[in-house]
Amino acid sequence: MEHVPPPAEELARLDRELAELDARRAQLLTRRAWLLAALRPPAPTAAPGWNPSAWGAPPPGRPGAPAQPWGYVPKQPSAPRSAQNVLLTLGGLLLAVAAVAFTLVSWGSMGIGGRSAVLAAVTLGALIAPAVLLRRGLAATAEALAALALVLTLLDVYAVHAVAAPDTDGLGFTAVASAVLAALWTAYGLALGKLRLPLPVAVVLAQWPLLFWAWAAGAPALVVGWALLATAVLDGVIALWGKGPGVRVTACVGGSAMGFSALMVGLALSTTASGPLGAAAPGALLLAAAAAALAGSWRAPKGFARTGGVVAGLAAVAAVGGVPAAALSDGWRVLAYLLCGLALAGVVRAGLPRDAARGVLAASGVVVAGALVWALPSLAAVLLGPVTLLSDVWAGSPEGVRSALGSTLPWSELAAAPVVLALVAGLLGSAYRWWPSVVRIAAPLGAREEPPEPDAAPAAAGTPGAAWTAPPGAGAPWYNVGGAGARRRPSGAALRGAAGAGALALGWGAPLLAGVVLDVPYAVAVAGETALVGGLLALAVRGAGSGRGASAVPVTALVGAVSGAVSVGLLSLASEGAAYAVFGALAVLFAGAAVRVGAEVPRAVFAVASVVWSTVLTGFAGRSLDLGPHEAAPLVLLVPALTVLLGARLRRNPVALPVELTGALGALVAVGLAVSDAPFLALVLALCGVLAAGAAVRPERRPVAGCLAAALFVLATWVRLAASEVSFPEAYTLPVTVPALVVGALRRRRDPEASSWTAYGPGLAATLLPSLAVAWTDTDWFRPLLLGVAALVITLLGARYRLQALLVLGGVVLALDGLHELAPYVAQVAGALPRWLPPALAGLLLLVVGATYEQRLRDARRLKDALGRMR
Predict the structure, then answer these.
(1) Tell me, what's the pLDDT at 550?
(2) What average pLDDT score do residues 419-429 get?
(3) Which of the two residues, 55 and 129, has the higher pLDDT score?
(4) C-alpha–C-alpha distance, residues 93 and 105, integer Å
(5) DSSP 3-state assignment of 698?
(6) Do 507 and 536 form a contact (C-beta atoms < 8 A)?
(7) Percentage of the chain surpassing pLDDT 90?
(8) CA distance linking residue 308 with residue 592, whole number of Å
(9) pLDDT tens sequence across 254-291
């Protein structure tokens, strides 16, 4: 019977066995660490003269190495590997130079036997020596001699051609020699597998036989293209099944260069073919290149597979599209390539590998993007061309729309541009409409889940470089602090929105461009563009009202409506009737959209645009009445007056402020129009003051609009006095100042918290500032004296009763008045002083201010606080 120990005894036995295993494991780990440290290169030695023992520090040692006695100095190798490589490289280079010198200089002094013997002996020795050196473990020396052997074989080829076959064709001899050398070095590299140089050299030599053969035979460009393509295919085979990274990298570089050259040859021949039959042969070359690239993408890694798919797709489009394009005119060739590029989308059902299919789809996108890049500049010319009409408004209606644009583009060569836009817009619109079907079809090409890297474990919490993690339920961030975070892919809703936005933008541009290409009548073009603006407004209102105001389609409709309105408005400037009709329609359309839309931002944009179009209409009215710019300025103020009334009606609606600000800009335009005539400027300023006062009736606008109204009234008074050449403005300003100050005093008595600027500022400024302006041009002393006394009294009253407006206005006027009186004496004294004294005084002042900067800053703060406490 089997003895079963008691549980306590069995537990003790297991503990002893586990302890022995732990001890043995620790011993093995220690030995392993020592072995790893022994295989590592030694640490760099300390600086000369540095002795760790002198500072009480232990000598540096390798982790896991056994402890060394104090003062132990590890033995350094006599020559590091880098020095060995330098010596071998220099030695091989010197031998190669000597061989070249011998071949070029001393070759002719020897007979044919001596020449053959020297070449055979030296070359054979250079080829045999690496094998011997490899058996003895001298790999670096063997590599150096292999490089020397390479140079010698090239010199042998040159010598054979110069002596044995001088009459042969150089290109043909080079083709044969490069093929022989490629075969020789391939066999040599396979025989001596430890050498890294021969096989990459063989790949480099294999690039030239077919190319030089075609060149030597005087073959046409198509044959040269086939030779390049065959070489690229050979490079692709080597890159996929070659031995070693050096061979594969060399083959990849060579195949890329040769394949690109073959594609350029085929593309050049295809685009310059005289007919479909002439484009068929280059098309075959391009199709062969596409097949080769697609075949290579089946076994290539991920990145190379996508690149192969892109190359295959572009080559197939150039091959198939080049045949019908050769039969079309220049304006329609791009359409043939576009149709072929769109046909590439069928790759999703072709059963290709995932990465290769993605590359082909990317090629389709590149073709579509190229077609759009070709067509969009003409659309930009259509939208921006009417800007030229600003220099000649209402010159007369042109017959066709092209003459109104002033563009010199070759419209006959852009006949396919609207078709391209319409075709791409239709496809994007279909994708937007049937997006679930598109997602289902493209599901095989969806992103696969990549397994996490073994070394990508998250850092411990609180350690430097730890990644920021999102809270539970939150989406993954697009970045990862301290790590390599995955880039967030766009969501399906974002992609669908982008497709819808692109369809809308291109679908809007296609009819605009078609009208210019067909050169439709001017009236038809204007009416059509206005109708398109109305359609875009309807889409924007519908999208915003359905709760998707922030999606791409309504935003694109909004931007397109505003852009189209500006373009058609500029286009309408050629005719007076068209201008009134277009801007009137735009004002009504945008106002209606502002009323119907539900979102706040689109409503504000539509309302602001409607105000702008209405302001332009008032400007047109002044021009139609043959009014000068200054005479039309009061007429322009009609729209700002309406915005003030509309703002009072809207009250605290978010749209009210943008509308009123736009009306204020219109009032600013009116002021600019009236600048040339002072009386009209005074009238316009007064009217603007009335509008500002009307806005100040509302409590929420009173702080800003009230001050603005007072400033405008005072400014209108000054301008009116200056226009009337009044020399005693006090006769006109004092009757205004006295009642204003009385009203301000009553206001302060009823409301002690009212600001002194509101109560006394307008009344004081009405007299002080015009008097100051006249005093600066007055040569007599009486007016400046009275003004200074009045300003002094006002300043003292402000300081006494702590009224900020009186203190600031009186102090500023007093200072400026005193400066005016002292200016002649200052100028006289400055003229009498040496020229070096003013800069010296300025420098001294700067030094004093700099030395007492902190104190001056504290004084300024105290002054600011004191003024802030005043009313």
Answers:
(1) 45
(2) 92
(3) 129
(4) 18
(5) coil
(6) no
(7) 26
(8) 54
(9) 999 999 999 999 999 998 888 888 899 999 999 999 99
Q: Residue 261: what pLDDT?
A: 93
Give the confidence band of 617 by pLDDT, cuts at 50, 70, 90: very high
287 in Cβ contact with 315 (< 8 Å): yes
pLDDT of amino acid 779:
72
CB atoms within 10 A of CB 133: 20
Residue 656 and residue 752: Cα distance in Å, rounded? 32
Query: What was the pLDDT predicted at 280?
Result: 92
Which residue in 815, 795, 816 sits closest to 806, CA to CA? 795
Closest Cα partner for 805 from 747, 774, 763, 863? Answer: 763
Q: What is the DSSP letter of 521?
A: B
CB 205 within 8 A of CB 185: yes
The residue whose two tokens read 């590998």 is 353
The DSSP bridge partners found for residue 400 are 521
Q: Tell me the backbone φ, ψ of residue 132, rounded to 5 degrees.
A: -65, -40
- Are the CB atoms for 277 and 299 separated by under 8 Å? no
DSSP for 841-861, please give it.
HHHHHHHHHHHTHHHHHHHHH
Q: Report yes or no on whether pTM surpasses 0.90.
A: no
Q: What is the DSSP string of 795-840?
A: HHHHHHHT-HHHHHHHHHHHHHHHHHHHHHHHHHHHHHS-TTHHHH
* 400 C-beta neighbours (distance < 10 Å), count: 16
| 182 CB-near residues (< 8 Å, 6+ apart) | 202, 203, 205, 206, 209
What's the mean per-residue pLDDT of the chain?
Answer: 79
| 785-834 tens-digit pLDDT | 888 888 888 888 888 888 888 888 888 888 888 877 766 666 666 666 66
What would the DSSP string read from start to end of 322-374? HHHHTTS-TTTHHHHHHHHHHHGGGGGGTT--HHHHHHHHHHHHHHHHHHHHH
**Residues forming beta bridges with residue 521, ordered by sequence position:** 400
Report the alpha-carbon distance of residue 441 to residue 420 in Å, rounded: 25
Rounded (to 5) percent helix, strand, coil in the chain: 75, 0, 25
563 phi, psi to nearest 5 deg: -65, -45
Q: What is the pLDDT of residue 413?
A: 83
Closest CA to 288 of 344, 227, 359: 227
Between 375 and 845, residue with greater pLDDT: 375
- Residue 167 DSSP class: T
Class of residue 555 by CB neighbours under 10 A (exposed 0-12, middle 13-18, buried 19+): buried
Q: What is the pLDDT of residue 832?
A: 64
Cα torsion 246, 250, 251, 252: sign:
positive
Label residue 225 exposed, middle or buried (CB < 10 Å: 0-12, 13-18, 19+).
Answer: buried
- Per-residue pLDDT of 147-197, as tens digits, reads 877 877 887 777 777 766 777 777 888 888 889 999 998 888 888 877 888
3-state SS of 104-133 is HHHHHHCCHHHHHHHHHHHHHHHHHHHHHH
pLDDT > 70: what percent of the chain? 79
Question: Do 157 and 129 form a contact (C-beta atoms < 8 A)?
Answer: no
Give which of 651, 650, 688, 643 is closest to 669, Cα–Cα: 688
To which residue do tokens 């439709």 refer? Answer: 520
Q: Which residues lie closer than 8 Å to 127 by C-beta, 6 or more apart?
A: 149, 188
pLDDT reading at 68 higher than 80: no
First to last CA, the chain: 111
For helices 756-775 and 782-801, angle between their N-to-C axes, nearest 10 degrees: 160
Contact 808, 765 (CB under 8 A): no
Question: Contact at 8 Å (CB) between 696 and 705?
Answer: yes
The whole-number average pLDDT for the span 658-679 is: 91
Neighbours of 118 (CB within 10 A): 16
- Which residue is it, tokens 């539900």? 598
Give the DSSP letter of residue 423: H
